[in-house]
Amino acid sequence: MDNTGYCSESFNSLQSGTSDEDMVEIAGATLDFSSTDDVPPLDRDYGSGGSYGAGDGPNGVPKLMDLLDEPVPGVGTYEDFNTIDWVREKSKDRDRHREIATKSKESTWALMKSISDAFSGWLLMLLVGLMSGALAGGIDISAHWMTDLKEGVCLNGFWFNHEHCCWNSNETTFQERDKCPQWKSWAELIVGTNNGPFAYIMNYLMYVCWALLFSFLAVSLVRAFAPYACGSGIPEIKTILSGFIIRGYLGKWTLMIKTITLVLAVSSGLSLGKEGPLVHVACCCGNILCHLFTKYRRNEAKRREVLSAAAAVGVSVAFGAPIGGVLFSLEEVSYYFPLKTLWRSFFAALVAAFTLRSINPFGNSRLVLFYVEFHSPWHLLELIPFVLLGIFGGIWGAFFIRANIAWCRRRKTTRLGHYPVLEVLVVTAVTALLAFPNSYTRMSTSELISELFNDCGLLDSSQLCNYTNVSITKSTSDALPDRPAGHEVYTALWQLSLALVFKMLITVVTFGMKVPSGLFIPSMAVGAIAGRLLGVGMEQLAYYHHDWVIFRGWCSPGADCITPGLYAMVGATACLGGVTRMTVSLVVIMFELTGGLEYIVPLMAATMTSKWVADALGREGIYEAHIRLNGYPFLESKEEFSHKTLAMDVMRPRRSDPPLSVITQDGMSVEEVESLIAETSYSGFPVVVSHESQRLVGFVQRRDLVISIENARQRQEGVVSASRIFFTEYTPPQPPNSPPPLKLRGIMDLSPFTVTDHTAMDIVVDIFRKLGLRQCLVTHNGRLLGIITKKDILKHMAQMANRDPDSILFN
After folding, report:
1. Contact present, 295 and 117 (Cβ < 8 Å)
2. Residue ranges of the CBS domain (predicted)?
3. DSSP H helical segments within 515-621, as ranges?
4. Got the DSSP string for 274-330?
5. Which DSSP letter does residue 333 get?
């Protein structure tokens, strides 16, 4: 319960927040927490004490204020970098719902309010889906245009991207369908020709300059206006959904800057994707729209139900996969996911996908650039190369996680982290210089994946589809038979091999920089390249050696046996699964991308093989590894606690520590309690009968205590430092001429969770995970012995795993 950042001097200091100089390291970035975004609004100003009026009781005796009678604004809210009390939040919501249900029977107006309250959740989901879908459509269109801007400009209108510019042109040819007089490269505009070494150098130079400009704008905007907009956002969202408070992370400025800089970062050509950050964008939309509805604005647990649905919306608009988005939220990010949230997540994901489909950002009625349909069946023996791709995906995932975490740790612990702008510019320059000569790294990663997924047909002019034409004697389907690879195919395979090495290395240093950066697309690109290489190899093997035992019976000459695009898709699934450790949701997302049930078995085989191999080499996925790297207080439900320790081994105080700081139920003055608050940094205090008996009465939060005392000084006449504080149900008679007492029983938790000192720690850990506790008190025969907080458990688990327990940064 150590909370060194907690300001305890006065109630006003709690309200004002931290100063501009207070900086904290989050997600590898030095961030400023002076922002007040995402602070729950309160009904009244704390400081307006005069508006309450101090009523007098009979005979002019000051009336005793009981916080049970009238709630104090601010009590029950949470300070920044604290964990919410899930049990208290759910109890508050049940009480609110019970009150609405009771009143609804009294009048028609109350009944209408009850119906409105029940409908508000669905209305909020509708708004989240509409807003997220609209933003995703704008991001897709803008990123596509700005990516093409690096290579040239449209004379009909600079706002057209390359494809849209040439749509209406009648002067395009089949072989050069992407060339039209309306689209001019920078070399054509500057030197008048697109041929020759000078034109190549000019296009090369403009490509690098645009990439540096876009990345510089992205990192500068993030650093100046919204430091929280950097990175993927999924590790922090997982932590927030588990109950942690990070004010401003899902605020208005973060949404605005993340949306703008995501377009810039993707357009710069860096090896990153927009799919992960779209989850962050959707959660920002959900959090901002929560403030329109009282029951979500005032209840942190209810708000997290909305954020779980918003995470599903983010994946829905990223991949055009509403069902996969819901499963992603359930499997990967959500901590508390009731059945009601499942239905609402599905509705919100559906609305978002429909909105994005209405915008039609790619002009092909598809929600993603790399949607593909395969028509050729796969054979049982192909499971062998599919499993091999799964093994490759698992090995690559484990390698990437270790390498990326090592690089990010180096960034945090060395001077490299002090120069985020320089780092982004250097990585962008290296990426652009190495990417331009290779056509497969020069194009955007989404276009690369689309090309690799593509099933070659008669109308394809891609270099990968330049097979040697042979006479087709029969055709039983729309698919072309396997053909021998031409010279351009082998050239493309060499370029893809170089692109594979380049993507594997550059993604390690790119993910985690101070720009919005997703990991889905780069991981899929690595797997798609490996899969396409293996697919073409299998195809040529089947063509030249169709009489081998493994091909005999199902791969006759002139048949379409092998689909290289399918291998690319399986490889992309395997690599993404190896990095993120997703299983069910990943298979469903890829199934929705292809629109065919026939390929679920290959996807499942590759995904499970990838996960098994990656888990054998390291138990953590990339998001869990970044959570641990940043020291977030997140109790991973997948991690087993197998040590035989007891609650008494983990609780505080230890033998060498000072005694536990407690408050007695009727024996302390306001001055003594304020002195206890000033001298300690704990987030709450147990309330006991007396210091001698140590019999537990309840637990009071530090923030509630500070706010209540300050509020009582303003509202209740005569409250001074010598006033006694009571947590008892009845106030005992006071000596004559004594100052009026202060009754604070209303802010005390009368049923704090307790365990005995001999409770096994694996049970304690399960209690914390499943109930979302902030702290648990330890007793022996009814006497208070100590306290266990979430931070204590995380430190103990780190110690048991031979890791640094001080890496847990927050309470």
Report:
1. yes
2. 651-717, 748-805
3. 520-544, 564-580, 584-594, 600-617
4. SHHHHHHHHHHHHHHHHTTSHHHHS-HHHHHHHHHHHHHHHHHHHHT-HHHHHHHII
5. I
Question: Range with the lowest mean pLDDT among 48-57, 70-79, 636-645, 675-684?
Answer: 48-57
Determine the structural domain holding residue 105 and report its residue range: 84-144+229-365
Same domain, 624 and 694: no
Q: What is the number of domains present in the chain? A: 3
Joined together, the tokens standing for residue 450 give 């689309």
Note the pLDDT of residue 473.
47
Question: Which phi and psi angles does 724 have, rounded to 5°?
Answer: -85, 145
Task: Give the SS3 label for residue 152.
Answer: strand
**Strand locations in 608-757, DSSP E?**
663-664, 668-669, 684-688, 696-701, 724-726, 742-743, 748-749, 754-756
pLDDT at 807: 66
Per the CB < 8 A criterion, the answer to whether 467 and 456 are in contact is yes
Chain centre to alpha carbon of residue 151: 33
Rounded to two decimals, the pTM is 0.85
Spatial strand order in the sheet of 668-669: 668-669, 724-726, 742-743
Mean pLDDT of 427-449: 93
Which pLDDT value is given to residue 722? 86
Task: Using alpha carbons, list the distances in angstroms from residue 146 to 50, 142, 190, 271.
Answer: 57, 6, 19, 16
The answer to whether residues 209 and 215 touch, using CB atoms and an 8 Å cutoff, is no
CA neighbor of 777 nearest in space, from 634, 671, 661: 661
Whether residues 800 and 671 fall in one domain: yes
Return the H-helix or E-strand segment holding 777.
strand 775-780
Given a contact cutoff of 8 angstroms between Cβ atoms, the answer to whether 374 and 341 are in contact is no
For residues 67 and 454, what is the distance between their CA atoms, to the nearest angstrom?
Answer: 67
The residue with greater pLDDT, 35 or 289, is: 289
List CB contacts of 115: < 8 A, sequence separation 6 or more: none
Instruction: Return the CATH number at 571.
Output: 1.10.3080.10
Indicate the DSSP class of residue 617.
H
- Report CA-CA distances (Å) from 56 to 59, 665, 720, 753: 8, 26, 17, 39
Percent of residues, the chain, with pLDDT higher than 90: 42
DSSP state of 85: -
717, 751: one domain: yes
DSSP run (H or E) holding 703: helix 702-715
Q: So what's the pLDDT on residue 22?
A: 35
- The predicted pLDDT at position 544 comes to 80
For 301-310, 446-455, 600-609, which range has the lowest pLDDT when averaged over its residues? 446-455
Angle at the Cα of 299 (from 296 to 304), degrees rounded to 5? 70
Is there a cis peptide before residue 735, judged by omega within 30 degrees of 0?
Answer: no
pLDDT exceeds cutoff 60 at 66: no
The DSSP element (H or E) to which 31 belongs, if any, is: strand 29-32
Measured N-to-C along each axis, helices 584-594 and 300-319 cross at an angle, to the nearest 10 degrees, of 40
Q: Which residue has the higher pLDDT, 681 or 310?
A: 310
Beta-bridge partner residues of 663 = 687
What integer best gives the mean pLDDT of the chain?
Answer: 83
Are 673 and 699 members of one domain? yes
| Assigned domain for 129 exists | yes
Q: Which two tokens stand for residue 582?
A: 């997703």
**Does residue 69 belong to any structural domain of this protein?**
no
pLDDT band at 9 (very low <50, low <70, confident <90, very high): very low
DSSP state of 564: H
Q: What is the DSSP string of 570-589?
A: HHHHHHHHHHH---HHHHHH
SS3 call for 153:
strand
pLDDT of residue 513: 92
Helix (H), strand (E) at residue 92? helix 86-103
**Residue carrying structure tokens 């919100």:** 348
Residue 633: both structure tokens together:
């207080």
Containing H/E element for 25? strand 23-26
Percent of the chain with pLDDT over 70: 85
Question: Which residues are bridge partners to 32 per DSSP?
Answer: 23
Pair (708, 768) in one structural domain: yes
DSSP state of 124: H
